[in-house]
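Schema walk-through. Below, the input block comes first and the output block second. Nothing else is stored per chain. Lengths vary across the set, and this one has 56 residues.
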Amino acid sequence: MVNIIADKFLKDVEPLALGIIGDFTRRGGVKMVVTFYRGEGSIRKGEFPVYTNNIL
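--- output ---
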């Protein structure tokens, strides 16, 4: 899902940098956090804030 959103957004908007985070919890308590970063923005430079997920 995260890659589909990222591909569509990159194609339509053409941003210089993009960061998308998918924080998913499935039935049964299996948690998954998927991150997508692309472009000139960088976490180290501070353009994208560091994400801390919510623990259930």
